């Protein structure tokens, strides 16, 4: 069964902007998918649908076997983790460990389980040594990895990332790409970073003015790059 299934998805903003105009695709569990397209093409709008921050105006969307609608939000939130383009939007507690603990604690997990999740999530992003630091003291590469850990701590099946390498120097980007390649999660990654796409995502969706212009193997789509 696909873990994501979008059928003729349409979305219009209240001002009438038609941001998605008939988007259909399916994603199998474990796939790493790149979502590329010019600014304003509809990438963020589509990602917001995948995490239940927006609901289709028309068409059908299932994520993790659940229809994306207001009735399924709590269940959806446990299945899908979102990493925002700016880590500063995701990190607001006095220490890294507290930031990563925030989500699991909200799920009502026992303190020992929260601690185990924090440790596991920070280990996964090579950031265990940062646990006691205040987020504002971290480098941009470190902040990015910790922001990903806050999503991982919820143990989502699907990770949705918006521009995960923006603002990183080449070394930090390589470090992050290596870590992401080791993840077993289904990943949908909106990005302008062609190196990341080629390195991490076997499949690419190209979105253009709210319509999927291409969906196929990354090597075919970027054959001439
Ligand atoms: P991308 O992430 O690819 O840059 P977006 O999904 O942000 O594209 O935007 C798709 C379209 O929707 C654009 O035309 C954009 O201007 C418009 N849009 C985005 N957010 C809003 C909003 N809150 N209200 C009205 N139009 C919006
Ligand atoms: P930044 O360059 O922004 O500080 P990095 O993610 O590159 O962010 O590095 C943060 C920390 O991780 C540094 O202490 C660095 O030595 C370490 N580091 C960088 N790359 C690797 C790697 N491939 N494996 C393990 N640790 C690394």
Q: Could you characterize what this model shows?
A:
- With 225 residues, the protein is an alpha/beta fold.
- Helices cover 34% and strands 26% of the residues.
- It has helices at 43-50, 73-79, 96-106, 111-124, 140-152, 170-181, 194-200, 218-221, and strands at residues 4-12, 18-27, 32-36, 58-63, 66-67, 80-83, 158-162, 186-190, 203-208, 211-217.
- The strands form 2 sheets. Strands 6-7-8-3-9-10 form a 6-stranded mixed beta sheet, sandwiched between helices. It has a 4-stranded antiparallel beta sheet with strand order 2-1-4-5, with helices on one face.
- Helix 3 (96-106) packs parallel to helix 5 (140-152).
- The longest helix is centred in the middle third of the chain and has 14 residues, at 111-124.
- It is globular.
- One adenosine-5'-diphosphate (ADP) is lined by residues 126, 139-142, 169, 171-172, 175, 178.
- One of its GO terms (molecular function) is ATP hydrolysis activity.
- Belongs to the ABC transporter superfamily.
- It comes from Mesoterricola silvestris.
- It holds the Pfam family ABC_tran.
Q: Which molecules are bound besides the chains? A: adenosine-5'-diphosphate
Total E-strand runs: 10
Let me know the largest β-sheet.
6 strands, mixed
- Listing every helix as H and every strand as E from the N terminus to the C terminus, the arrangement reads EEEHEEHEHHHEHEHEEH
Rg result: 17 Å
Largest sheet: spatial strand order: 6-7-8-3-9-10
- Treating each run of at least 4 consecutive H or I residues as one helix, how many helices? 8
Q: What low-confidence regions span 5 or more consecutive residues with pLDDT below 50? A: none
- What structural class do you assign from the helix and strand content? alpha/beta
| Overall pLDDT confidence | 95
| Helix content class | 25-40%
The percentage of residues in β strands lies in: 25-35%
Overall geometric form: globular
* First and last CA, distance: 33 Å
């Amino acid at each position: 069964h696909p873990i994501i299934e979008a059928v003729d998805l349409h979305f219009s903003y209240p001002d009438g902007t038609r941001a998605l105009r008939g988007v259909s695709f399916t994603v199998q569990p474990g796939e790493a998918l790149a979502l590329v397209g010019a600014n304003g093409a509809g990438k963020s709008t589509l990602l917001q649908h995948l995490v239940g921050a927006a609901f289709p105006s028309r068409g059908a969307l299932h994520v993790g076997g659940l229809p994306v609608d207001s009735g399924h939000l709590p269940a959806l939130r446990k299945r899908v983790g979102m990493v925002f383009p700016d880590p500063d939007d995701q990190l607001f507690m006095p220490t890294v460990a507290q930031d990563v603990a925030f989500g699991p604690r909200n799920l009502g997990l026992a303190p020992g389980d929260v601690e185990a999740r924090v440790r596991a999530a920070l280990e996964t992003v090579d950031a265990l040594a940062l646990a006691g630091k205040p987020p504002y003291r971290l480098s941009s590469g470190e902040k990015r990895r910790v922001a990903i850990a806050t999503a991982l701590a919820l143990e989502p099946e699907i990770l949705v990332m918006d521009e995960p390498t923006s603002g990183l120097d080449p070394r930090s980007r390589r470090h992050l790409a290596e870590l992401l390649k080791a993840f077993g999660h289904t990943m949908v990654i909106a990005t302008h970073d062609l190196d990341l796409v080629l390195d991490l995502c076997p499949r690419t969706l190209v979105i253009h003015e709210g319509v999927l212009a291409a969906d196929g193997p990354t090597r075919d789509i970027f054959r001439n790059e």
